[in-house]
Amino acid sequence: MPRLVTYNVHRCVGVDRRLDVDRVVAVIAELEPDVVCLQELDVGRARTGHVDQAQSIADKLAMAVRFHPAMRVEAELYGDAILTPHPERLVRAGPLPTLPNVPGLEPRGALWAQIDMGAATVNVINTHLGLVPREQRLQTAALAGRDWLGSDLCVGPTILCGDFNATSMTRPYRTLCGTGLEDAQRKLGVRPSVKTFPSAYPAIRIDHAFVSREIRVTGAHAPFSPLARMASDHLPLAFDFEVDG
Length: 245
Hints:
Blueprint: E1 3-8, H1 21-31, E2 35-43, H2 53-61, E3 64-73, E4 76-84, E5 88-96, E6 108-117, E7 120-128, H3 133-144, E8 158-163, H4 171-177, E9 182-183, H5 184-188, E10 207-211, E11 215-221, H6 226-231, E12 237-243
Parallel strand pairs: 1-2, 7-8
Antiparallel strand pairs: 1-12, 2-4, 3-4, 5-6, 6-7, 8-10, 9-10, 11-12
Helix pairs in contact: 1-2, 3-4
């Protein structure tokens, strides 16, 4: 049964402020995922030792990687990635809109791959939304539009996941639920919901997976081991699923 993990790795700097890529790899490896969607990766940045974190994590997990730099500072990159050991192909990677004339907002983007899982091909879209509600509304509208979920290429089994910086009480969350996708936790009927932030004492649910009708969710959990609680300020969120039809 396939498993998808979405995980904000906080540039592999843990809550103890220690940079440790191997610790993040160990957290992911324990989950034995088929697809890994990562947010907040540094690639070639001085602050994290010029390491290509996306490629390093993929190599250690024996997976292929697709990386999208939401932010570029000369040769330094920062963004999101999709990792998998299964055959895959990149469909789209690009920026999401932001608010004009508002200083200090971090650029955001999304990444879309089609992954072959046995008899089914699954669209997987990974994203990391901004912190400002008005910005989030622009970004979710874009994700719901013709470049992403509304694309002619986005047919059949689809999973949209990532760090949305928004709870289930917000308008951006409702926008995504209005695209024909369903919150994976609600589809499964998880009670209480699985929360991932902050990792030491997870109190809120801002990491989500939204799935199409072809995706049957069979399990959801977030590991609460000492390692997972320390490796990042988020816990990873794991979903088990089957593809109907």
